Structures are given as C-alpha cells and as structure tokens.
Amino acid sequence: MGRLVVIEGLDGAGKRTLSEGLTKALHAQGASVATLAFPRYGRSVYADLVREALHRGHGDLADSVYGMAMLYALDRRGALGEITGALERHDVLLLDRYVSSNAAYGAARLHQDAHGEFVAWLKELEIDRFGLPVPDLQLLLRVTPEVAAARAEHRARSESDRAKDSFESDDALQARCAHVYDELAGESWLSEWRVVDGTAAFDPAELSRWLVHPG
C-alpha cells in the first residue's frame, strides 16, 4: 500500500501549489503519485451541495455546522473506493484537504478547540463509522490568516470560478481555524504532522525525499 499524505491549511494557504510541487518532485524520484482534492466539486453531489450552500443556496443550510460537516464527510465516504484503489496502485496519494479540514473548520465555527465535542464526533463519524483510512502524514501549510485572506482575495479577482465563499470571507473564522489547526498538529491528531512555512521558500525535492524515506 502507498502512503496517504494530506495537505491541510487555511483557504488561500497555497495547498494546490504545494501539491503540484510535491507531485513533480516525487515523480523525479521515480515514485508514482496520485492526487485528489476535497471537496470534489463537479464530481460529487455532496460537494456540489456544499459549494451551493457556501454561496447562500439552499436556505439556511450553511448555518448548520453539523449539517455542512456531514456533507463534507459524505463526499469523502463516496470517494473511499477511489482512495483505497489509489493507495493500492501508487507509492503516494496526495490529498488536498481531508478529515482534519472538517475538524478545524467545524470546531472553529462552534468556537471550540481541538479537544471539544465536535472534533470527537467527527472522528467517530469519518474514521470509525465511515471507515476512511487514517493518514500516514499530514502537512500543515501554515500562513497567517492575513496572508491567507490576501491570497484568497487575489485568487477571487484573477480566477472567474474562484469567488470567495462565506467561510473565506469570514476573517474571524479563519483566525480561529488557524488556531485549531495548530492544536491538531501539536497533538498529532490522527497521525504524525509536519508544519511547512507557507510564507517562506521551501524545497519540494527535500520534502519529497522525506516522504519517500521518512526514516
């Protein structure tokens, strides 16, 4: 089985850029790589409902923290076969967001920390009940909420299909989410974590070598 590696971070942290850089570096080392991003917009009805709700569709659905978390979780549950198949065929499966995103944003919306009842509920739902595989490693791409907000704003202006949603537009939520992410990483929630400074230059080749040979 391949290694399940997850890239986590705030909206606008640069997760897609990190994923692309790691993919190229891993290929250069001869490793086979599969990638998948959540939510699976355009491929999953649950993901599409999430996007519509975040842009104020479906009435007050987006106001329900548990309701939105369930949609995110069902999107991942629907991808279980794709995840396990990719792990069987490739050395590394890189995921852009996974269970910890749901944990961080849900807890932040409820003004809870990583030790609150929401995070415990989510682990029971996605890992224990839905049977999603536990990551081998989670990479926290850490940037300040201010940097993430500026990047998200630039992306919204430059890409016609990347308008900011209600979560990305909530600066206070992003700040609380960053705090929960730090807590999850600090206590190695679900797996080992490694923090990557998203505002400094880093070498994808060095990080990819560590992914292939963690010892």
TrEMBL record:
Ordered alphabetically, the record's keywords are: ATP-binding, Kinase, Nucleotide biosynthesis, Nucleotide-binding, Transferase
Q: What is this protein called?
A: Thymidylate kinase
- Recorded source organism is Amycolatopsis cynarae
Task: Show the Pfam families listed in the entry.
Answer: Thymidylate_kin (PF02223)
Q: Which GO terms describe its molecular function?
A: dTMP kinase activity
Catalytic reaction list: dTMP + ATP = dTDP + ADP
- Lineage in the entry? Bacteria, Bacillati, Actinomycetota, Actinomycetes, Pseudonocardiales
Q: Give the encoding gene's name.
A: tmk
Enumerate the Gene3D superfamilies for this protein.
P-loop containing nucleotide triphosphate hydrolases
User: Has keyword Cell membrane?
Assistant: no
What does the protein in this record do? Phosphorylation of dTMP to form dTDP in both de novo and salvage pathways of dTTP synthesis.
